[in-house]
Amino acid sequence: MRDSSPRQRVTAVLDLRGHRHSALFAEEVDWLLAENPAVPWIKPRRTAAECAAQFEELPAQTVPEDISIDTCMVAGTDAVLFGHFSGTVRATGKPFGGPFALRLTVEDGRIARHHLYENSVSIAAACTP
Fold it and tell me: Could you list the pLDDT tens digit for every one of the 129 residues in the chain?
């Protein structure tokens, strides 16, 4: 998949089933997701393995309910998505959700930048017993 386009990479990232997620990411990734001590899966990541672990930790700790993409723009090696998500934290049974924006950069067929902006207040509240 070394010649994958940003659009193909975006599709692979959003489809959490059946992928070897570490293959989606460059060896070192510019990962941005605001740390939140109340949310166990939100933490600093840098390597392909660390970034791929996000896609194992998230479904283990949440029940995803909905994700919708309102806008997907691709220009060169960059893709930006705007949408909405919702789910439930398994440990508390509390719902979370809200809008998100995701910026990806694909270099040599792998994600080199992953910047996610989401409703962290809603997620933290859902993680708090």
Answer: 444 666 676 666 666 554 567 888 999 999 999 888 899 999 999 999 999 898 889 889 999 999 898 998 988 889 899 999 999 999 999 999 999 999 999 898 889 999 999 999 999 999 999
Global pTM? 0.84
Which domains are seen in the chain, by residue range?
6-127 (3.10.450.50)
Q: Give, rounded to a whole angstrom, the gap between the first and last alpha carbons of the chain.
A: 42
Give me the DSSP letters along 26-40.
EEEEEEE----TT-T
Question: Which structure tokens are listed for 28?
Answer: 């070192």
